[in-house]
Amino acid sequence: MIDDFGLLYVGNVIDGDDIGFDGPLPSERRYDSARMFSAFDEARTLARLGEAQGFTTFWMAEHHYQHEGFEVIPNIPLLSLWLAQHTERIRFGCGFNILPTWNPIRLAEDFAVVDHLTGGRLRFGVGRGYHERELVGMNPMTAGLDDDDRRALFQEQVELLITAFGEERWNHKGRFYELPPAGAVHRGLPVTDLTLVPRPDHPVEIWQPTTSGNPQGVEFMARHGIKGMIAGMPSSFTGKFATIYQQANAAAGRELELGENLAVGFRAYLADSEDQARRELRPIYDEYSKFGAPLGVNPFNDELVALHRARGLPVPDGARHMSFEQVLDSGAWFAGTAEQFLERLDGLQRELPGLRHLLVNLHIPASHAQNREQVERLGRDVLPHVLSGAVEVTA
Predict the structure, then answer these.
(1) What pLDDT was estimated at residue 389?
(2) Strand 189-190 relative to strand 185-186: parallel, antiparallel, unpaired?
């Protein structure tokens, strides 16, 4: 039964400006500081609106250096502390802290402080990151590392976090970190162990995005009890990953119901009719494709390939290629009525009976007015059915 329905906001300041294939390329967008700061005001508006509508978690994403204005929140715990002062109940989700850009101990401290000051309203999540510019720009250690090495760095950072959260006194010696360093001296005495101050006074749940189903990554999540978020993926992937995740947890000695300890996120756009939803979503989708396809987080389509060729931009080898209609048919995106969305959710719960967590992505290049309207429509027409357990639509 679903008892946690959230929103994901990534800090868009584009506000619907010149979106679609006739608009500027992402690299041609550049906004001033006043426009960038407006993302925080909009976060407050959406968090308040989401809370009033009955949403339980307001997830946010961390990113850096984005003069293009698509994702401009650099520090989720810090913003969450401010948002908590303007709301009463809604929780704030780190979806996700880009761990390779952090000193992991500094992140653990920041989480512990904000978690305490907000009365436990901060939810912790970590990701590897997919923007090369922010990875190497924030942590030069990542430059030149191949994917396996970056995974090893991320996993060591996660293990360091878990140790610091869970143990009063600890030390760590791995491939990338040695804490305390050999030979460290404090007040004339050798430093043999460290203590996270402050340290959370409760177990910390950790969430991680899932995009590939890599067996090594899934095994790591299961071994450490990490929860998984499947966001914006085709329907076929959702069920497949849930099965792999359940099996990996069983191998780690943890029996889960199918879908348990997972969250499923939707890129959904609701309207009074399916035709209206598709028509209004299309320029938003096209702009997101311009942004996301070169990064590997959305497919190319014919129009985007033509735009890249006309502007002398590369199309990566092996890039996914799907039309707008094919993406909708795959379930990776949704456009339709509230009733159709409830039918989709009903099917999902039948497939994953242990699923408790859902979220809807607010659209990056959409106008603020469109995203607010989507929150209101979801709160009015979807949440009452979902959170009451009455997901199935009857004639």
Answers:
(1) 64
(2) antiparallel
DSSP string, 105-172: HHHHHHHHHHHHHTTS-EEEEEE----HHHHHHH-GGGTT--HHHHHHHHHHHHHHHHHHHH-SSB-E
- Parts of the chain with a pLDDT under 70: 389-395
Cα 383 from Cα 352, distance rounded (Å): 19
Identify the CA nearest to 68 among candidates 30, 116, 35, 16.
Answer: 30
pLDDT in tens, 163-207: 999 999 999 999 999 999 999 999 999 999 999 999 999 999 999
CA distance 228 to 208: 5
Identify the burial level of 36 via C-beta atoms within 10 angstroms of its C-beta, where 0-12 means exposed, 13-18 middle and 19 or more buried: middle
Q: 3-class DSSP state for residue 48?
A: helix
**Strands 97-98 and 122-127: what pairing?**
parallel
Query: Whose CA is closest to 46, among 83, 79, 21, 13?
Result: 83
Q: Please report the pLDDT score of residue 213 as a whole number.
A: 81
Taking the alpha carbons at both ends of the chain, their separation in whole angstroms is: 22
Q: Which of 17, 21, 15 is nearest to 283 (CA)?
A: 21
Exposure on the CB side of residue 50, measured as CA atoms within 13 A: 30
Q: What whole-number distance in Å separates Cα of residue 387 and Cα of residue 1?
A: 8
Query: How much is the pLDDT for 392?
Result: 45
CB 128 within 8 A of CB 158: no
- Given this model, what pLDDT does residue 211 score? 79
For 97, list phi and psi in degrees, rounded to 5.
-70, 125
E-state strands within the chain: 4-9, 57-60, 91-94, 97-98, 122-127, 172-173, 178-179, 185-186, 189-190, 206-209, 227-231, 262-270, 333-336, 357-361
Its pTM surpasses 0.70 = yes
pLDDT the model gives residue 395: 25
Q: What residues contact 74, with CB distance under 8 A and at least 6 apart?
A: 62, 63, 64
Instruction: Output DSSP code: residue 321.
Output: B
